[in-house]
Amino acid sequence: MTDWSPRTKAVHAGVRRSQYGEVSEAIYLTQGFVYDTAEQAEARFIETGDDEYIYARYGNPTVRMFEDRIAALEGTEDAFATASGMAAVNGALCSMLKAGDHVVSARALFGSCLYILEDILPRYGVDVTFVDGTDLDAWRDAVRDDTRAVFLETVANPTLEVIDLKAVAEIAHAKDALVIVDNVFATPVFGHAVRDGADVVVYSATKHIDGQGRCLGGVICGTKDFIRKVAEPYLKHTGGALSPFNAWVMLKGLETVHLRCSAQAETALKIATALEGHNKVAKVAYPHLPSHPQFETAKQQMDQGGTVIALDIHGNKEEAFRFLNALKIITISNNLGDSKSLITHPTTTTHQRLTDEQRASLGISDGLVRMSVGLEDADDLLADIKAALDMI
To answer: Of 47, 104, 108, 255, which residue is 20 to 30 A from 356 by alpha carbon distance?
Structure first.
C-alpha cells in the first residue's frame, strides 16, 4: 500500500472485510464486544491487540477503517477519529498539556479554536502566547525553551492567510516543541502538512472528507506513540469518540474526496479571478491568486488553492447582508467543504464572539464574507454572485 497513489489509498486503505466478503465497508453498530472467556477479557483490558475491541468509546472496526484510511492518505503512522473537528482540536491539545506548559499559537483562528486556546487552556494553568502567524520573527521571539507545542491553521479561517509551515516547524523543532496544525482549508488532498513539518494534523471530517453536509466528525493524525499513548487515553476516557455510522459516511466520502476537491478548487480559482477588480468588491482573497500576500508560500504548500474564497464587500454589514440575501444558488450556512456552495458572514456568525478590536486585528471587516465553493457549474455560480453584487 505504501506504493499506492493518494487517490488509490483514499478508496482502498484500511479495508477490513468480514467473512461475507462485502464490497462496501460494513457498519458495526455496537457499543460493546463479547469475549470467549473471562481470561480473554482480562488480557484485552491489559493490552488490546490489532482488531481487538473492548467498547465503542475505545474503538470500533468501522471507525478503525476510517482511521487507517485517513492516516494512509495523510502519511502518518496512526490516527484517532473523534466526534467532531473541535473534539479533535481539543483532544490534540488537552491530551498533551498540563499546568505550567507553554503554547504558541497563530492569532488568526476559527472562533471555537480560539476559545480553547484563549479561554479553556489558561483556566488550567497553560500559558498561551498569540502571534501574527505570517510573521516569522514573531514566532522566533515567542517560542521558548519551555514551549511544549505550537498551533496554527495552515490556511486561516476566514481571511485565508497562509502560514509558512516549513519555517514555523523549523523554529518549533529547534526548541523540541510539537507542531500541531489544523489543515482543514488546505484539505488532505492539496496540503502536505507532514511533509512540511507538522507532527500532529487535525481535520474536521465534517468538511471536505464528508463533503455532503451529512455528519459531524473529526480526526487526529500523528505518530503511533502520540495517537495511542497520548491522544487515545484522553479521548477514550472523556468520550469524544466518532460513531460507527458517521465513520462509514466518512469512508464513503474519502472515496471521492480527490475528485470533489479538485473540481471545487478549479471553480474557486475561476470565480476568484473573475471577481478581482469588481467595483463592488474591495478585496478577493484566495491562496492561489497572485495578488494573495502569501501566494508563493501557498503555491509551495498546496497543490491547488482550496475550495474557499474570502470577499470583502465594499461597505459594511448592511451591504454584505444585501449581497447574501440576493443569492439564489449559493446558500447561507456556516459550514464549508460541501458539494453545495455555501456562504457566511464571519463577523455575525463564526467570529461573532470576538471583540471589534480582535476582528480588526485579524482583518475581519463588516463587509467580509466567506464563500465555500461547491460542485455547481462555475458559470452559474459566477452569474449568481454578479447578480447579487448588482443588488448592493
So the answer is: 104
pLDDT tens string 159-171: 999 999 999 999 9
Query: How does DSSP classify residue 164?
Result: -
Say how far apart CA 91 and CA 82 lie, in whole Å.
Answer: 9
Q: For residue 149, what is its C-alpha cell? A: 507545542
Average pLDDT of span 99-122: 96
Q: Provide the grid cell at 359.
A: 476582528
- Strand arrangement, sheet containing 368-372: 281-285, 308-313, 368-372, 342-344, 331-332
1 within domain boundaries: no
In this prediction the pTM is 0.96
Q: What is the spatial distance between Cα 320 and Cα 172, in angstroms, rounded to a whole number? A: 39
- Residue with cell string 465503542: 56
Output the nine-digit C-alpha cell for 25: 465497508
Tell which of 253, 283, 305 closes a domain.
253
Quote the CA–CA distance of 260 and 58 in Å, as a whole number. 31
What CATH number should be reported for the domain holding residue 344?
3.90.1150.10
Q: 265-301 pLDDT, tens per residue?
A: 999 999 999 999 999 999 999 999 999 999 999 999 9
Of 113, 86, 342, nearest to 212 (Cα)? 342
